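Quick note —
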Amino acid sequence: MKIGLIGAGRIGAFHAQTLASQADITELRIADVDVDRAKSVAESTGASTATDADELVRWADAIVIAASTDTHADLITLGAEAGLPVFCEKPITLDLETTNRVLERVNTADIPLQIGFQRRFDPGFTAARDMLASGQLGRLYMAKLNTYDPEPAHDAYIKVSGGMFVDMLVHDFDLIRWVSGQEVVEVTAAGRALTGNPAFEQADDVDTAVAVLQLADGAMAVVSGVRHDPRGYDVRLEMHGSRDAVAAGINAQMPLKLLDDNDQWENGNEHQTFLERFESSYRQELNTFLKVAQGQMDSPCTGEDAGEALRLALVAKKSLRERRPVLVEEIR
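Predicted structure written out below.
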């Protein structure tokens, strides 16, 4: 297969390494608005470069989009119009109207689309999902999900990110749908700007937030997020059911100081970035996309999945703004 990679920033460079190591890929070409950056990544991975995305879609058998968020909609549409399988980092867009318009083009073109929610490929989260689906956990009572960043993104990004729920906690909204196999019917959210960075208030955003979700069968989920964790990058999941209780993400690299006689975890090896925490998951999702692109399996994370996660994030924003529980059906 000939794969075109659009975007050579931090995640794009990481994806280039993964793609370059795959036996199924005969050639990899990279395009980026920063030509020098594309050349640098290409040289480090044995790939070649393309002038732009238009050139890539005319050449490639499938494309991987790791460019900036504001380009995703146009690039997915470009791939769809060329009849190519597309992998794109989340989100499709920051609003549902544009998201739905892109998905209409994708469905009309009948091409496979996989969105990059890499947590679906984390072994611990996968095991929790399998245990619930098999009945080992019994009836789900409560799930707890948290995402804590080591430090906020730069101020310019905060302004265009879509906000904490849309940019950061959307991963948790996707994960709870996937792990539980249920839809969320109601969201109650709260949040504050506590880190002292004025960029959040200037963007009408928060840096510390929580959302309580009611699932279709009455089970509850609590999603919490913090933009600044001085110990590192912390993503965890707990699931409490009628037969068992499990947790994923609790290990020696968890950036949390334990106070209950667990000095053996004080090893200074805590996760500091999302790439460290989910390195194997990122690789696995791209390996899976190659199977999707070759028609060996359906997309494990569709555009519709991404749309539903975005809808939950927007419902949470509405709840935060209006200070009330919001039914998901209020946002179509």
